[in-house]
Specification:
Layout: H1 6-15, H2 27-30, E1 33-39, E2 42-47, H3 57-70, E3 75-80, H4 93-102, E4 133-136, E5 144-148, E6 152-156
Length: 159
């Protein structure tokens, strides 16, 4: 039998913590989980929130500490790192698929490195139509916009 290292086990546990705002996603799916290290019995988890004022960061921190201590890690620390800034490029393909299945349009394209590109249409996650319109630049959270097709839906903004 192959023994799993504490670092590998801690990473697996941290990777399965759910995003408090979009519970079908893990923080790993979202790209918020940046690193997990274990040294001298201390687990240090590094996260980068989707934006610097993210109200869910405290809940993510608490959920990480609870999950890891429940698994037997006595000393858990969570570091929040804002640089480099989170980008929608960090969303995994599994995360993008889960967003569509949940009814949220995933971001399209890549985060702009220069001038901001115009977005001509956002596909409806329910029917796939590009005949959608933005209702509000801010949806249920600041990192999403509100669009509508036949009915309203959230769209993750490209960051």
């Amino acid at each position: 039998m192959i023994a799993v290292s504490d670092a590998t086990r801690a990473r697996e546990i941290a990777a399965n913590v759910r995003d408090p705002e979009v519970p079908v996603l893990t923080i790993d799916d979202l790209g918020v989980l940046r690193d997990v290290e274990v040294s001298a019995g201390t687990v240090v988890v590094t996260i980068t929130p989707t934006y610097s004022g993210c109200p869910a960061v405290d809940t993510m921190r608490d959920d990480l500490v609870l999950a890891l201590t429940a698994a037997g890690f006595a000393d858990v620390r969570v570091r929040t790192v804002l640089s480099p800034a989170w980008t929608t490029d960090w969303l995994t393909e599994a995360g993008r698929r889960k967003l569509v299945e949940y009814g949220i349009a995933p971001p399209t394209g890549r985060a702009p490195a220069g001038p901001i590109r115009l977005q001509l249409g956002v596909a409806c996650p329910r029917c796939g139509s590009l005949h959608t319109r933005e209702i509000s630049r801010f949806g249920s959270t600041a990192c999403k916009a509100l669009y509508e097709c036949l009915e309203p839906f959230d769209h993750f903004k490209v960051h």
